[in-house]
Design a protein that fits this description.
Residues 1-27 form the signal peptide. Helix content is 37%, strand content 25%. The protein is of the alpha+beta class and 379 residues long. Strands 5-4-3-6-7 form a five-stranded antiparallel sheet, with helices on both faces. The structure holds 2-acetamido-2-deoxy-beta-D-glucopyranose (NAG) (8 copies).
């Protein structure tokens, strides 16, 4: 019995891995998850930008205050106000800068698109860097000033927060006859169309109807749930969450340069090309947020760390795993996980599957025969 369970577990992991690495094939792209890291140790703009780059992030792209504020508020609500993103207590560095003293860019290689007050201010200012105050106002700032900073990593997929015994007050924007899983996928994978996208769904179980709710206001159903949701016994609405975050007081890398040079963007992949690589799978796991302290390690150090985490006494594993995650996350059933997390999990469990491949192949037919009964238990 135990043996069979193990085999089944391994087969599941294999399927998860295969499913994870099948890329999404749509032509344009849905939202991906944005992870913000608030670094509380002050440093210069160059030190901040190099620290973010060290883990493939960039200084926060604060080009739309409305959506940034919505993300920060969601972060505080989601994480039980544990992190003070929406109530910053000091100025922070953001990614806007004047490369080589002339060309305006968002760190590292995003062209400036909005025509906004700050761009004019920065153009005519003698400063080349930009900070954001506690009211989300941007202003040119001397690059050698030392400030806390926010790094941004765009990776992984959005997930859905189930809210039980609730129903939407208003009619849905779109319906179809999909079941729960298909409905979730439809909402998550739906392309952004003029920034209108699906931010919530629910399935009417009486006639299996999938209802999608569309809006251009990021996270609004979650932030203003009082105005959108009403009590309703035995129905569950699912609200999309596209944000994650953590704080860190790690020491910033020190930078040799004082002012941002012209960026070499020759090999920069723009947003759409990395979005294409985002994998979609139905892992029933909360998204993993790796801490910056872990992310800045070299590959060798990471491997060493993973191995030492794996070798820890089993009774200690969850505590040390949490240290790695640095997040105390009590959400009931999150539905996705960042790509880094998937790679980690696939590496760890993929190894087990490969070791077991012979056994696995020879037992697949037996498994298919015996899985009918247990399939009805799972989904
Ligand atoms: C954040 O600040 C606003 C007003 O500035 C206040 O109403 C709110 O309670 C604060 N939130 C937290 C979590 O401190
Ligand atoms: C950004 O601007 C530069 C020069 O202004 C241009 O060559 C480049 O194609 C632009 N990149 C994007 C992604 O628009
Ligand atoms: C979705 O429907 C609501 C009312 O049910 C409406 O206020 C909103 O504008 C609609 N959204 C879109 C994108 O059509
Ligand atoms: C995008 O929205 C427009 C109207 O706002 C609509 O005509 C068009 O069909 C939409 N495209 C997609 C792919 O949904
Ligand atoms: C599904 O049932 C609800 C009431 O339970 C009803 O309002 C709705 O119109 C039905 N939808 C379809 C597509 O039949
Ligand atoms: C900011 O983003 C929202 C969508 O989240 C959009 O509706 C709004 O027009 C944007 N504002 C600016 C100034 O681009
Ligand atoms: C930019 O970087 C690429 C390699 O990534 C290099 O081949 C190229 O010469 C660099 N361009 C400049 C202007 O430094
Ligand atoms: C468990 O972890 C704690 C703190 O991380 C450590 O002090 C302790 O020695 C560990 N116990 C075992 C059995 O590894």
């Amino acid at each position: 019995m135990c043996n069979r369970t193990m085999k089944k577990l391994h087969l599941t992991m294999l399927l998860v891995i295969l499913y994870c690495f099948v890329p999404s094939s749509t032509g344009s792209y849905p939202s991906t998850r944005t992870v913000y890291y608030l670094h509380t140790s002050p440093t210069t703009w160059m030190g901040a930008s190099e620290t973010c780059e060290r883990y493939d992030g960039h200084l926060v792209k604060a080009d739309n205050v409305t959506s940034l504020r919505a993300d920060f508020q969601t972060l505080d609500i989601q994480l039980n106000r544990k992190y003070k993103f929406s109530n910053l207590t000091s100025k922070v560095w953001v990614g806007l800068y004047k490369a080589g003293g002339k060309e305006l860019m968002w760190h590292k290689c995003h062209n400036v698109t909005n025509v906004d007050n700050i761009y004019g201010q920065l153009s005519s200012s003698s400063e080349s860097c930009v900070s954001m105050d506690t009211n989300y106002q941007l202003s040119p700032t001397k690059c050698t000033e030392e400030l806390p900073y926010i790094c941004q990593v765009d990776e992984g997929q959005c997930w859905f927060l189930p809210v039980e015994n609730k129903q939407f007050k208003m009619a849905s924007n779109e319906t179809s006859t999909d079941g729960l899983n298909e409905c979730a996928k439809k909402c998550r994978n739906r392309d952004r169309n003029n920034s209108i996208e699906c931010w919530a769904f629910y399935v009417d179980s009486s006639n299996a109807t999938c209802h999608l709710y569309l809006t251009s206001e990021r996270h609004t159903y979650l932030l203003n749930s009082g105005s959108y949701l009403t009590a309703s016994v035995d129905t569950t609405v699912y609200l999309k969450v596209c944000v994650g975050g953590d704080t860190s007081s790690m020491k910033a890398l020190s930078s040799a340069a004082s002012y941002p040079a012209l960026a070499n963007c020759t090999h920069y992949k723009d947003e759409d090309s990395w979005l294409e690589a985002v994998c979609y799978c139905d892992c029933d796991q909360p998204p993993i947020i790796l801490s910056p302290e872990y992310l800045v390690l070299t590959p060798e150090e990471k491997i060493e760390k993973i191995i030492s985490e794996l070798l820890v006494d089993a009774s200690n594993t969850s505590a040390s795993f949490r240290k790695l995650n640095s997040i105390d996350d009590k959400r009931p059933s999150a539905r996705s996980i960042g790509s880094l997390g998937i790679i980690l999990i696939c590496l760890v469990f993929g190894g087990i599957v490969l070791l077991d491949l012979n056994v696995l192949v020879s037992h697949i037919s037996a498994l298919i025969g015996t899985s009918k009964d247990s399939n009805s238990n799972k989904k």
